[in-house]
Write a structure and sequence with these properties.
9 strands; globular; 5 helices; Rossmann fold; alpha/beta; seven-stranded mixed sheet; 36% strand; 171 residues
């Protein structure tokens, strides 16, 4: 666990609903030193031999774009359904109450490319697993995952256990 970075994450009780303690990374993003360190560690954790970084909106974009720039490679946005303007591939996944879907441009990942998937938080693992399936549906190979935060008590790691994974902060 990275206690230096953890100091920049604040708890927001009862957000977005009662009983949830939201992990707010805004202070980390606002600190040039903490942000720089987080990006360096996220890139080092999964960046060797990677061809492209994919990240899930919205906070994943902030981290994933910076990791891609640091590694000198391209960036692939993975978004909620209906948000991308070109031909997309879609992957549905289960939520605690219902389901949701993610999309990626059909031409965003080339067959055989090694893809690092970056996101801010690994919680139940549904979004991460759906992202991996999107990449693999286009012939890409998931090189691994890099997360800023892992909520280990939710056991999301189990849904992506076949891939290498880095999490900088664990709760």
């Amino acid at each position: 666990m990275n206690d230096e970075l953890k100091a920049f994450v604040r708890d927001i009780p009862d957000f977005p609903k009662k009983g949830i303690i939201f992990k707010d990374i805004t202070p980390l993003l606002g600190s040039p030193e903490a942000f720089r360190r987080a990006i360096a560690l996220l890139a080092a954790g999964g960046g060797r031999g990677v061809d492209v970084v994919a990240a899930v909106e919205a906070r994943g974009f902030i981290l994933g774009g910076a990791v891609a720039e640091r590694l000198g490679i391209g960036f692939v946005p993975i978004r909620k359904a209906g948000k991308l303007p070109f031909d997309t591939v879609r992957e549905e996944y289960d939520l605690e109450y219902g389901s949701d879907a993610l999309e990626m441009h059909r031409d965003a990942v080339e067959s055989g490319q090694r893809v690092l998937i970056v996101d801010d938080v690994l919680a139940t693992g549904g979004t991460a697993a759906a992202s991996a399936r999107l990449v693999e549906a286009r012939g890409g190979r998931v090189a691994g995952f890099s997360f800023l935060i892992e909520l280990s008590f939710l056991e999301g790691r189990r849904k992506i256990e076949k891939y290498p994974m880095t999490a900088l902060i664990r709760y």
